[in-house]
Batch of 2 targets.
Target 1
Amino acid sequence: MKCELSSSCHTFVAVEKFPTSQQLICDMFKLRRLTTLASTIKYIFLVPVFLFSTASFAQDGKAIFTANCASCHALDKKLTGPALRGVEDRWSGDRARIHAWVHNPPGFMKTDPYTESLHKEYGIVMTAFPTLADKDIDAILDYVKSAPLPGGGPKDINPVEEDNSDMTLLFGVITLILAIVAFTLLYVNANLKKMADDKEGMPAVEPIAFWRNKTYITVFTLVIFLIGGYLITEGAVGLGRQQKYEPKQPIFFSHKVHPGVNQINCQYCHIGVYQGKQATIPSVNICMNCHMAINEYKGTTKLITAEGREVNGTAEIQKLYKYAGYEPGKPWDASKAQPIEWVRIHNLPDHVYFNHAQHVNAGKVQCQTCHGEVTKYNEMFQFAPLSMGWCLNCHRTTKVQFDNNGFYSMYEKYKEDIKNHRMDSVVVKDIGGAECQKCHY
Ligand code: HEC
Ligand code: HEC
Ligand code: HEC
Ligand code: HEC
Ligand code: HEC
Ligand code: HEC
């Protein structure tokens, strides 16, 4: 009989003398070829590699989306702008029109009744992104199309960040299934080998218990070492990070009421933000500029804590008066004021240098990009992860705004290159935004 594997089966010749067992042995070799450890490992690694490689494209889009669009758009929830899932269907899949829209919303709207009607509904005109490349917009659209549906609960403030966990679970399950398959195959393999040896009349080697088998011990130690090492590093890197941190504050101070409903400029209170490194937290004096007159809360915006309890605004203003040492109707002596002990929410480690003026003034980055829709928060919380990856992702994708920007007169060469079409655009990384010493003392 013919076995198509005979060339690779060096023991095949030996069994030629026993024709009846030839087919059996041949089948066994076919099986064994499949079940060798090497090929099993290959399959285990190939599947996740394939999944990662398809995911990585959408990851880029996600980063660009997070940096530019997430302050106004979520995938499944109306924020300042519409939920973006399914947006291509609403635009009949016409990406060229979407590019035109993103580059210049006010101009596009003039000729397009659909976006004009969106504008009526949302009340504000979307920010223009004149320098965002078409391929970046495509990457965003690909991400929007492929992003998994969120499974998060009601506190799902930033669904963009959520879908990592879905992937982790998926990979975890796949790895587990593959591990079980690998073990079963190894077991089958061992048994078949034993059967083959029996058939050949070779003396069976006394099997070594698996806990004394050197290969198993090595693999096991290696796996424990890798997983342990990964978890320890992850844990250490995450020390001190506190995304979504939302502490109780001494006074229930609502950003929804102040910069939101009453449209008080951020800079009125955070006076340092356009000039200095720190945004600064307002002193009691700044509060009292207005609250000498405003001693009651009559607003219609409900003041709700994270636990869902309703707060009495007038009582909170009374707390402010306690700190200020002010009694309504009497003249106020500002020197009696006690500082309010606000709990600090955002806190980078000491080895990192971050400057607000550089970002909001020179870089023209909106507060909302890093702090979220502040004007909708009753209680302030940390919107961004403040990790190094978060800083760098934005520096890699955000274009430097050269136009009408005195801060960049020193970069004449770049301006020339853009004008002469030698370069498309310059991102923050190109002007040194990824150099270690720019962010680390
Ligand atoms: C300042 C807030 C803001 C930012 C930032 C923003 N958008 Fe918008 N977007 C809106 C608003 C508001 C609308 C609704 C139309 C209007 O009123 O201008 C909209 C509408 C859209 C639409 C049409 C939606 C639909 O349902 O048909 C698309 C597509 C879109 N935006 C894409 C983007 C992309 C891509 C980015 C990031 C590069 C982005 N937007 C950034 C506010 C924003
Ligand atoms: C009327 C004064 C006032 C205005 C206007 C105001 N804030 Fe605040 N902000 C505060 C006070 C007081 C705190 C500290 C209490 C808290 O965290 O809620 C604070 C805290 C913050 C924090 C967190 C600080 C920390 O501890 O890390 C951020 C971020 C912030 N504000 C952003 C903004 C932005 C963005 C705007 C404009 C859209 C704005 N604020 C407008 C008074 C104001
Ligand atoms: C530019 C004016 C202005 C400044 C500055 C200001 N407030 Fe207010 N505050 C208001 C207005 C307007 C209301 C809403 C009153 C109403 O709707 O009846 C309000 C409401 C409040 C309320 C009740 C609603 C809530 O948010 O809980 C509290 C408490 C309060 N302010 C505390 C403060 C504190 C503390 C500061 C200083 C960090 C401050 N305010 C600074 C104008 C101001
Ligand atoms: C590029 C991202 C980014 C932008 C844009 C940004 N912030 Fe911040 N903000 C941060 C980071 C990071 C911290 C933490 C700084 C630290 O711990 O030293 C912070 C901290 C703060 C704090 C508390 C600590 C402090 O610096 O006094 C306030 C208040 C604040 N930001 C307000 C604002 C306001 C208002 C704007 C818009 C005018 C704004 N931020 C724009 C990233 C940003
Ligand atoms: C949303 C986008 C964004 C995020 C997030 C961001 N940056 Fe930036 N960053 C910019 C832009 C835009 C500039 C360009 C401004 C300029 O040229 O001065 C910049 C410039 C800088 C520079 C000056 C670089 C140079 O070459 O002069 C430093 C330092 C810096 N960022 C630190 C940080 C740190 C630290 C973080 C994270 C805590 C951070 N940035 C997060 C957008 C961002
Ligand atoms: C755009 C700003 C930025 C640049 C550029 C940057 N870092 Fe960081 N780095 C950070 C921030 C922010 C943190 C704090 C992260 C945290 O608290 O988890 C950090 C943390 C670290 C840490 C502590 C470990 C950790 O993740 O917390 C090390 C080590 C580090 N950076 C090394 C580097 C080296 C090396 C380079 C140059 C290749 C570099 N950084 C460039 C912003 C930056």
Target 2
Amino acid sequence: MTPTWLTQLLFRFGCLLSVLALTSDGNGLSLASDPSGTVNFLDMVNNLQGDSGRGYYIEMSIGTPGQKLNILVDTGSSNFAVAAAPHPFITHYFNTALSSTYQSNGRTVAVRYTQGNWEGQLGIDHVSIPKGPNGTVTINIAAILSSNGFFLPGINWQGILGMAYPMLARPDSSVEPFFNSVVQQLGIPDIFSLQMCGAGLSASSAADPAGGSLVMGGVEPTLYRGSVWYTPIIEEWYYQVEVLKLEVGDQNLNLDCREYNMDKAIVDSGTTLLRLPVNVFNAVVEAITHSSLIQDFSSGFWDGTKLACWMKGETPWRFFPKLSIYLRATNTSQSFRITILPQLYIQPITDVDGTLDCFRFGVSSSANGLVIGATVMEGFYVVFDRAQQRLGFALSTCAASGGVALSEIAGPFSAADVAADCSAGSLKEPLMWLISYALMAVCGLILIILLLLLVLPCRRRDRFGEITDESSLVRHRIK
Ligand SMILES: *[C@@H]1O[C@H](CO)[C@@H](O)[C@H](O)[C@H]1NC(C)=O
Ligand SMILES: *[C@@H]1O[C@H](CO)[C@@H](O)[C@H](O)[C@H]1NC(C)=O
């Protein structure tokens, strides 16, 4: 078989598949595969299940022979880890002893999340994704042997897929994250995109789990409407972005823009809610209380300890304003805004009582930065364009309810009214290290100077025979 012959065959085969994909698609217009033919995005549509409350997961086949496991997609961490021992809240786990290709490397690893943590053993194995890019990749796997508050009741996943950058990988950045390995070994473009479809559905109904799509290697046009708006990834660890402004209804919160990025602003599919720095959160709650037609909300609703209930069928959304987040555009003197309707942040919870519909507040306060979590992401098709160091937002085709879009995007707006760098106040990890080193250097310098100051007079005094030992010297100097 000559290579040309093989290429031709593959090309014909590829065309046939594209034609099939085109005809099976209702509106007949889709750009299913990229020119290299290694990625077929339509194959990846609807490869996720889950909801904002318990996360969105993808099915993977791990080891040889493949063991099927559901893996949570988390853009806020960078380790690939799967349960490798039984746990009361999971139905099955990855049995490393049954995989002929599993190799432990003997290192232990521990990871701590905002909620929960686990400990395990590092190793490598082969993994494929039935509804993902074609091919098998050899990747780092952490085999979870013990955990706390990580696997929760009612979840249907057994592992986590950290999609962020190497800097967040544990125990250190030499443990290559899953997506880096996929890009390198399969040669797909360094970009993935995420559509999560739980908008407006009950966050806890096990009956009909919502779907979603994780497209690896590009952007699937059938998953969004309008254009994709891009914001720079300002630091490659989490997917850190720069928030310029927040609006509740038409009202600008008018805080110093650094407050929104204190100590960072990230996009994280593994976080359920929209989390806001305390000051911002308080301002948002106050603005919502003022603009909503309901004044007598108990504080328990805002802090997430109480649900608010209405008579069945009397949806409360018309009482609440829209929320808008302004992000820096790639042209840094401009911004664009992503807006969520109350349907996304006043979230239905399966009825507690037969005659009532109950809702929770989808926004919470945070001590470690602003997090654009699933509550907001469900309104958008989010493009993680790592190749060009930018994140894209577009209107998601599944963020609609009864024909009404639950999210909006608008722009460009001038960013002349905000500081040139709203994340200036944020301490990024490398920066923090730099500052520590700088402080250490300064301390060292002061110490040397002090010692010199101590030693010099000491010699002089020595000459005069006054003070002989170091300790008395120190006492003298303190006086
Ligand atoms: C991946 O492989 C399957 C099965 O051979 C095929 O149907 C699909 O079109 C392939 N996708 C691409 C992009 O080559
Ligand atoms: C960036 O935005 C500014 C302000 O709107 C505009 O004047 C400028 O032409 C834009 N630059 C580019 C490269 O589009």
